[in-house]
Specification:
alpha/beta; 6 helices
Length: 178
């Protein structure tokens, strides 16, 4: 049994990327894994100010919801990120969380397998490339892990437009295969 943490970074009600994250989590649970689905919606998350205090103390100077998310990620075997694509890039919330996770850098971590789920109004194959590249920058800082899979669902711009889309089943199956 693995510990799986899925992080849904969209703040929108009816989020298409959150729906993919839910299906990934259900698939991982069906495979017998311990799953935690974290949503950034409703969380307090300040911006990193680049003070690098976390590198000396192992903790961020800000006391918000990020340290609990970091603890979950540090103890996970698998981390799945879900984000809408805005202007051909990951959501600002996802980037902010990645920046704030700088406090994890000097710590020991368990995660080895990283997954990415992305949605966008645009449907061209190149649309999620920058989001994947941005996440790869974070992955590269953790030499024991790698990107194991990326699922992109394009053509879903409005709330709940992913309903009935076959990519939901693909996300479920990706979670089952963890």
């Amino acid at each position: 049994m693995k510990k799986v943490v899925a992080i849904s970074t969209s703040l929108r009600p009816g989020s298409n990327s959150h729906a993919l994250a839910e299906q990934f989590a259900k698939g991982a649970e069906a495979a017998g894994h311990q799953v935690e689905l974290v949503t950034l919606r409703g969380k307090e998350m300040k911006f990193c100010v680049g003070c690098l205090s976390c590198q000396k103390t192992g903790a961020c100077i800000f006391k918000d919801d990020v340290p609990a998310i970091m603890d979950s990620v540090l103890s996970a075997d698998v981390v799945c990120w879900a984000t809408p694509i805005y202007y051909y890039e990951m959501s600002g919330q996802m980037k902010t969380l990645i920046d704030r996770m700088n406090a994890m850098y000097p710590k020991d971590y368990r995660f080895r397998d990283i997954y990415l789920l992305t949605t966008a109004a645009e449907d061209e194959a190149f649309v999620p490339e920058r989001a994947e590249s941005g996440l790869q920058g974070w992955i590269d800082c953790y030499g024991k892990c790698s990107l194991k899979g990326h699922l992109f669902c394009g053509g879903v711009g409005g709330p709940n437009e992913v309903e009935g889309n076959p990519k939901l089943r693909d996300a479920y199956e990706m979670g089952r295969a963890v």
